[in-house]
Specification:
The chain is built from 11 helices and 12 strands. The chain is of the alpha+beta class and 425 residues long.
Length: 425
Amino acid sequence: MNECRRAARVRALSGKTAAQQQAALTALAQTSPERIRPFVEAGLAGADLPPRARSELVTYLTSIPMTARRAITRPNDGGRPATLVSQLPRSASDLMRFVPLRAPRFQPGDLVPGHDYRLEALLGQGGFAEVWKARHTLRTGEPPVALKFCLDPTLLPSLRMEIAAADAMNHPAPHDGFVQLLGTAYSGEPPFLVYEYVDGGDLTAWLAAYEGRRPPVKSVVNVLKLTARAVAVAHAHGVVHRDLKPANLLVTSAGRIKVSDFGIGAILADAAGRTGRAAAMTGATMLRGAHTPIYTDPLQARDAAPHPRGDVYALGVVGYQLLTADVTQPMGPAWRAELHRREIPDELVDIVGACVDIPSRRLADAGAVAAALERIGQPRGSTPPPREPASERPPGPAVRYCIACGTKAARHDFFCTRCGERLAA
């Protein structure tokens, strides 16, 4: 299957202009698997393959239109996405978004055994899961749902943790900042969870709609606020996401942000002291190492216990990427200079810095991040003067206290790490 993926990448990138690539990818994304299957089978007619390998290859190739469509789907595209120039793959690795990870377990039109759902389209794949858009076979007036299948029985404890996290975060009432868990089939074959179907794309697709230009700073701040508010609810209930990234931040057609995929999250051992029901089940999932490196705190030990500051770090990276209009690059040592070069307001640069600083000086959780973002442009009293780099700042008192909550702050902190209040200069 790896050879198949490499062949698909090379074929799509070879000898085509940008306009030709746009047209080819758009046509591919709008082709139904049923229509492409006869061509795939005819193309493999002369291939000397064992029956099982042939079947897998046919399944894999006929799944490409679904993954291609998902790769170019974005909010407010009218339901028939067309490939933007900014969505064209610039390298072989970029093309991975357009092809399946592997031959999927199911096919469009399949009925879920023992349940009243018919599968429509593959939405995503992970190391142990497949997510499918599906509709109820009897209650035809119901909106579509997303079914997340657990394909590895050894990871069922992870599925239970995901259920517990969803229950904790949405108690006593559902929060619209999360993709809602609607039902469970823990005893299914295979087991699956029923989630609401989000009709837009993810944050990568939202950014692509700007065609390589940086979104307005106001729009980036709004996205970060919506995300931080939702993650703050999770943190308040003792739940850490542990894999925040643009692909897990879905954007509805109405412009709302919904945080998805708590599949490798953790419920903290100290959750008993928080509001909610997280104390009923504590600990990290079995997938402790299954994170995305670019958004993972490099200062956190590989096997360190999960902490909200890990999600805070990821929020800072996402903010930096949106402000530079590039979700492929990590934050380098000169990230602050890069944001200043792009004339990002100092106050927003400082908030990004307070997310990715060393853990002891980092904003404590997403609630503090949300509070800092809410106060942009609304300082207490007079507007604080522009801040020079810490190395050029004249000596000040070694210890200060936050005027809002009284927390002790270090001399060079811009924000209170506990509540997000901007500190006096």
